[in-house]
Design a protein that fits this description.
The complex is a heterodimer.
Chain A: E1 2-13, E2 16-27, E3 31-35, H1 42-49, E4 57-62, E5 65-66, E6 78-81, H2 93-103, H3 108-121, H4 137-148, E7 155-159, H5 167-180, E8 185-190, H6 193-199, E9 202-207, E10 210-216, H7 217-224, E11 228-233, H8 238-248, E12 254-260, E13 263-268, H9 271-284, E14 289-295, H10 299-307
Chain B: H1 3-17, H2 20-47, H3 52-58, H4 64-87, H5 92-97, H6 99-104, H7 110-143, H8 149-176, H9 180-198, H10 209-217, H11 227-250
Chain lengths: ~325, ~250
C-alpha cells in the first residue's frame, strides 16, 4: 500500500505556480527523500499533505485518507516537524510533549511513560523540566521530533530537518531518522544531498513544482549518474596533461573533460570503452600517472544534471 | 479529557504563566477599590486646592450613584484597553511565530482552537471583574451604604458582557491580521467606529455602550432595561466568533 499518493497536485499563489501538477507515490515503510532546489515546491507539498494549506487542484492522500477533500482526515496518523519548529516558550519540554499527548487523547496512565520515552529518545530527558525559551536551535529541533512522534505516526513529515543544525546535531537527527526505518514512513524534504544519501532509500527530485524523477537511490545513480574518471599526473607534467585532455575531448566516447592543476576529470558516455581506451591513451601520450580512478557517481551529480542551475524566481 | 478542555487548560496556563491574569486582575481590582474612594473624597480633595472650598460647595454631596458611575467608567475603560491588549496577539502571534501550525496539524479543530481562547479570556476577565466587584462593593458599603447584591451582580454581569464584546471583536481582528500590532490597530479602528456610530441619534441605544447606561441605572429608583442593546451585543459576539472561525478555516498557516 502507498503511504502517500499525489495526483496532479497544483498550488498557485497569484501568478506564481508553486506546484504544477505534481504526481508522486511513496511506499509504506520507506524513508523518502524529497529533493529539490529552494523554491521547488517541497514545503508547499508538505503543507498541503499536513492540512496547513489548500491545494488549488489535484488530489492527495496520506495513509489512505484524502487530505485534499478533508484536511483533518489524516491528522491522527501523521507527525510533522517544520523546518523551524515553534513552541510555547513559557512551557517546559515535558509540558509541551505532554500537551501534545493530551491533544492526541493519550490516556493519563500512558502519558507520563510516553513523554519520558520520547524525551529520552531525542536526548532531552535531562532538560525536560527546563523552559523551551532557553533551548538552542538544535534542542528545539530534537523537541520538534519528539512532539512529532507522540502519536506513533504512520507517516512522519520532516521539512528540512537538519538545515538549522550543526554537524553534531545533524548526525544525531539523521541517526534518529535511521532508527525510525521500518516503524513508519518518513517523508523528508531537504536540499542537503549528503543527508539523502545517508538515510533515504527512495528519492523524488522535484523542480519548478513538478516531479523530475523518482526511484530508489541505486536506480537513480545507475540511471542518471555519468561515469567519471580522474587522472592525476606527476607534478610538472601539467602542460602535457592539458594537451592530452584537449585531444581526448574530441573522442566519441568522451562527454566532457576538465583539467584542474595536475588532475583531469573525464566524463564518459560509454564506461566499457573508457575502461579499455583511457589508460592506454594516457600512457601513450607519455604521461606519468600517480592516480587513475573511476569515481563513484554521487547523488549530487545526478541532482545537478537533472535540476542544475534552477533556482526559484 | 476532550480536546477543547485540553486546549482550554493550555490557554489558562498561558494566562497565568505570562502574567496576563495577574495584570488584568490587579488593574481591575485597583480601579474597583479606587472608584468609591474617588467618588467619596473628590470634594475633600478639591477643598485642598487654592479657592477649593468655594469650588467644593458647588459640588453636590456624593451619593452611591456617583460611586457606581465612577466604578462603571473605570472598569469599562480599562476593561476595553485590557481586552484589546491581551487579545490582539491571541491568534496573530501564534500564526506569526508558527505555534498555530505546529498544533493545528494535530487533531485539533480550528474552531476549538478559537473557542478555547475566547473561553480562557472570559475566565480571566470574569475572575478579575469578580475581584474588582468585591473590592468596589466593600468600599461602597463602608463609604456609602451596601448596594443591593442582586443588582450589583447584574451591573457587573452587564459590564462583563460589555468587555467581552471587545474581546470577541479583537479576536476576530487577530484572525484577520498577520501580526499582533496590525490586529491591535484594526481592533482599535473597529471599536472607535462603533463608538462613533453610537453617537448618531437613534443608534446608540442598540449598541454595546448602552449596556453601561443600563448598568449605571440599576441602583437608581427607576432602572431602565435596554434588552435590544444586550441582544445586539450578544449578536456581535456570536458574529465575531463565527466570522473568526470562517476566516481561520480558510487561512493557510
Amino acid at each position: 500500500m502507498d503511504a502517500i499518493r499525489i495526483e496532479g497536485l497544483t498550488k498557485t499563489y497569484g501568478a506564481v505556480r508553486a506546484l504544477d501538477g505534481l504526481d508522486l507515490t511513496v511506499a509504506s515503510g520507506s524513508v523518502f527523500g524529497f529533493l529539490g532546489p529552494n523554491g521547488a515546491g517541497k514545503t508547499t507539498t508538505i503543507r498541503i499533505l499536513t492540512g496547513l494549506a489548500h491545494a488549488t487542484a489535484g488530489r492527495a492522500s496520506v495513509s489512505g485518507a484524502d487530505v485534499t477533500a478533508d484536511r483533518h482526515a489524516a491528522a491522527r496518523r501523521i507527525g510533522h516537524l517544520a523546518e523551524e519548529p515553534a513552541f510555547y516558550t513559557w512551557m517546559t519540554a515535558t509540558e509541551f510533549v505532554d500537551h501534545v499527548a493530551r491533544t492526541f487523547g493519550v490516556s493519563q496512565s500512558e502519558r507520563a511513560a510516553r513523554v519520558g520515552e520520547l524525551l529520552e529518545l531525542v536526548g532531552l530527558a535531562g532538560v525536560g523540566g527546563r523552559r523551551i525559551g532557553g533551548f538552542s536551535r538544535g534542542m528545539r529541533q530534537r523537541l520538534g521530533l519528539a512532539q512529532a512522534l507522540v502519536n506513533r505516526p504512520e507517516v512522519l513529515f520532516l521539512d528540512e530537518p537538519t538545515s538549522a543544525l550543526d554537524p553534531a546535531g545533524r548526525k544525531e537527527v539523521l541517526e534518529l531518522i535511521e532508527r525510525l526505518r521500518g516503524q513508519c514512513t518518513v517523508f523528508m524534504s531537504t536540499h542537503i544531498l549528503a543527508d539523502v544519501e545517508r538515510v533515504c532509500d527512495t528519492i523524488g527530485i522535484v523542480a519548478k513544482g513538478k516531479l523530475v524523477t523518482q526511484a530508489s537511490r541505486e536506480e537513480l545513480l545507475a540511471r542518471y549518474a555519468a561515469p567519471i574518471f580522474e587522472v592525476e599526473v606527476k607534478h610538472g607534467l601539467e602542460s602535457g596533461l592539458a594537451e592530452w585532455a584537449g585531444e581526448l575531448g574530441r573522442s566519441q566516447w568522451v562527454d566532457a573533460v576538465s583539467v584542474a592543476g595536475s588532475t583531469a576529470r573525464i566524463v564518459v558516455k560509454d564506461t566499457d570503452v573508457a575502461m579499455r581506451e583511457l589508460l592506454p591513451s594516457a600512457l601513450g601520450a607519455g604521461l606519468m600517472l600517480i592516480r587513475y580512478e573511476m569515481m563513484r557517481p554521487s547523488l549530487e551529480e545526478v541532482f545537478l544534471r537533472l535540476v542544475g542551475g534552477e533556482r526559484a524566481p | 479529557m476532550s480536546v477543547f478542555l485540553v486546549t482550554l487548560r493550555k490557554e489558562l496556563m498561558e494566562q497565568r504563566r505570562t502574567h496576563r491574569l495577574l495584570v488584568v486582575g490587579v488593574v481591575l481590582i485597583v480601579f474597583g477599590l479606587l472608584s468609591p474612594l474617588a467618588a467619596r473624597y473628590t470634594p475633600e480633595m478639591i477643598k485642598l486646592l487654592p479657592n477649593g472650598a468655594a469650588m467644593a460647595q458647588l459640588i453636590p454631596r456624593p451619593t452611591i450613584m456617583d460611586a457606581v458611575g465612577q466604578y462603571l467608567k473605570n472598569v469599562s475603560q480599562f476593561g476595553v484597553v485590557l481586552a484589546l491588549l491581551v487579545t490582539m496577539g491571541a491568534v496573530a502571534q501564534e500564526k506569526d511565530r508558527g505555534t498555530a501550525a505546529v498544533m493545528l496539524v494535530k487533531p485539533l479543530p480550528r474552531a476549538t482552537f478559537l473557542v478555547a481562547k475566547f473561553a480562557a479570556l472570559a475566565v480571566t476577565f470574569s475572575l478579575s471583574l469578580l475581584g474588582s466587584a468585591l473590592a468596589a462593593y466593600y468600599y461602597t458599603m463602608l463609604l456609602f451604604h451596601a448596594p443591593d447584591p442582586s443588582r450589583w451582580l447584574a451591573l457587573n454581569a452587564l459590564a462583563l458582557v460589555y468587555i467581552m464584546v471587545h474581546v470577541a471583536i479583537t479576536l476576530l481582528c487577530s484572525v484577520i491580521a498577520k501580526s499582533q500590532a496590525a490586529a491591535g490597530g484594526i481592533a482599535f479602528a473597529v471599536i472607535a467606529a462603533m463608538g462613533l456610530i453610537g453617537t448618531i441619534p437613534g443608534f446608540g441605544e442598540y449598541l454595546p455602550g448602552q449596556l453601561l447606561g443600563w448598568a449605571g441605572g440599576l441602583l437608581s429608583d427607576t432602572p431602565t432595561a435596554y434588552w435590544p442593546a444586550l441582544g445586539v451585543t450578544l449578536a456581535i459576539i456570536a458574529v465575531s466568533l463565527a466570522g473568526a472561525w470562517w476566516l481561520f478555516e480558510r487561512q493557510e498557516l
